[in-house]
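Listing 4. Sequential folding, example run.
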Amino acid sequence: MITLRSIRLHTRCTLFAAILAVPTLAFSESPNSPDAKLPLAILNSPVTNVNGQSQPWPEVVMKDGMDAEQQRAVIASLGRRFDDFTKPGVNSPIDIPRSIKKTVDGGVFRVYSYFFTVHATLDILNDENLLTKLFADNKQGNGEGADLGVVGDDKYSYAHEPELLKRISLTMVLRSNDSKSEASVYAGSIVVANDPENKHQSSWAPLDSPDDKQPYLGMGIFTKATPLVELPNVLFFEAHMVFYEPKGWFRGKNLLGAKLPIMIQDQVRSLRREVGK
């Protein structure tokens, strides 16, 4: 099995540079199917916050083994014409369905799925130089990040965003998996409480009260890249992100949720530009 680096897309916010991912392994059923062989270990459990409230992972839409007609039906379900959705170019369509689920503690789980195509083959994702260029942004901006090593199939890293929307300081420890087959590629990351050596812990604190640190859990993403049967040099990407936003972050205001679609579009365009070089 060929392993890949977790793919982290460009963003000015270290938080999302670390968590927003793109591709890795193949399987023919949805991650939520009880009989499916899960492509990534992080998908074995729902995304859960520190209070034990959980949100299931969204399901894969472009499953392995689909024929050309079935793949066209998936794209049509997004409200897109096949030719428009698969056209080349940095600004070709990007779909970003999203939903919100309130939690009993006043916070919310935000669920984002985004779909787009890139004119490339699965082989290009094995290009370490490309991956380094795309996802070396862990230390971009005012934040910081670092790799924390590998345990079995799990890669650990952390990201620190000192001034998320000028409201909170956030540190995340990430557990990441990735894998590849001839049919597709998957990658994913989820926030965990701490790294295996407990040198870093996931936590947040208000900027006006930096010593009031609270543990943080509830964020994860996985991405799948699948070649199209009719256009084998075009990859269908789908990324599914779940994150818990405590009420204490923005007092219920939709500040981060309003910015995410713009950030996602910028990240996808950056990916397309890099692949096109």
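-- end of first protein; second protein begins --
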Amino acid sequence: MYKYLLLLVLFSSMTSATVVDKMHKLGAGEMSFLFWRLYRAEFYSLDSGLSAAVKRDAKAYLTPSKETALRIEYFKQIDKQDLLDATEDQWLHLGYDQASIQPWLTSLNVIWPDVAPGDVLTLVISPAGESQFYLGEQAIGGVEDTDFGVAFLSIWLSQQTSQPKLRAQLLGLTS
């Protein structure tokens, strides 16, 4: 009897659900710098129609009718401060002002860890604009500002992104 319970526990832990399991993957791509692969990003939505909407109007990700998520699997060790600095640089590149950015960075400084190869950070954004970060499948914190989620996604999905090829892959605009 006990060995059957042990097998049940073992197999149930192997099939645990992920944060994005019930979502539709709209696209995926990798970020590289010179010859280093930094991470793989995937963009998800609970809205199965968002993919078609994005193909008609790439700004459709800004007003999802259901949850969206950005999942990033890291291939390199990156210190939290380097993640924060890169995020700030990208927001400045997109034209966000320092007054908006600073509270977001303060929140991220509390939430984000240093990442190691194999770590997965996922941001889930509700249609109401609530943002929740996960490390693996563990919730690690949220950002209350409802403008944050779109600003964070814009780093990858805005038409002004510094990585247009990755943007096209995440939005499913390339085959």
